[in-house]
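Predicting holo structure, adenosine-5'-triphosphate bound.
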Amino acid sequence: MELILDRLTKQYHNKIAVDCISLNLHKGVYGLLGANGAGKTTLMRIICGVLKADSGTVTYDGVDVSSEAYRAKLGYLPQDFGYYPDFTGMDFLIYMAALKGLTKIQAKRKANELLELVSLKEEAHKKIKKYSGGMKQRLGIAQALLNNPQILILDEPTAGLDPKERVRFRNIIAKIGKENIVILSTHIVSDIEHIADTVLMMKDGRLIYQGKWQEKSGDLEEFYLKQFEED
Ligand SMILES: Nc1ncnc2c1ncn2[C@@H]1O[C@H](COP(=O)(O)OP(=O)(O)OP(=O)(O)O)[C@@H](O)[C@H]1O
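Done. Tokens:
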């Protein structure tokens, strides 16, 4: 299980959003930290194959990001995920499962299993427009897991969650990260300091820090703020 980013670069007009990023990722939770505009979304969209890099490659166990085989291993929750407000959580998952090629029976079984995982079983037959922000995010994670992905990409998944929802969310991610590669982006240090096995920090399109973060390394928030002090 190895995801390799090799010298990824992406430029918009005269702005370099991702600047020669190389990384080797294995099983575990990666917390991608960076201020607004650091390039997190651009990088994640490249890893998902939604956006093509100007140069560089993304491969998973040797399979290129542009291939169907790669996509089959990928789960993605974008920043602005479009839900269908009049669908129930269950209908939505079954619909998304059909789009991903599951049969009706598979879809039903998987939807039930995932609703359980994200603690939405009781709300499964409620319309999404009645869901709280946290419930929607959990449903978003569930849809990203429909194809049993080995790579799970979550773009700012904790935005707008209350503290209780954050804890619940962390527990779900920690569980998934035991067996898979999970990359989640945020600009909130406390979202990742307790669950990320590896901290990645981006600034101006570059990776300025990568590594484990433990108590003895000091205060992550302090370190993070220091990187942005001159701004
Ligand atoms: N489609 C685009 N056209 C032009 N510039 C863009 C485009 N998308 C992103 N950018 C610029 O590229 C840089 C990186 O943006 P990106 O969205 O990847 O950052 P981010 O770290 O995800 O920020 P945020 O947390 O605000 O989403 C920013 O300066 C942004 O303005």
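The mean pLDDT is 91.
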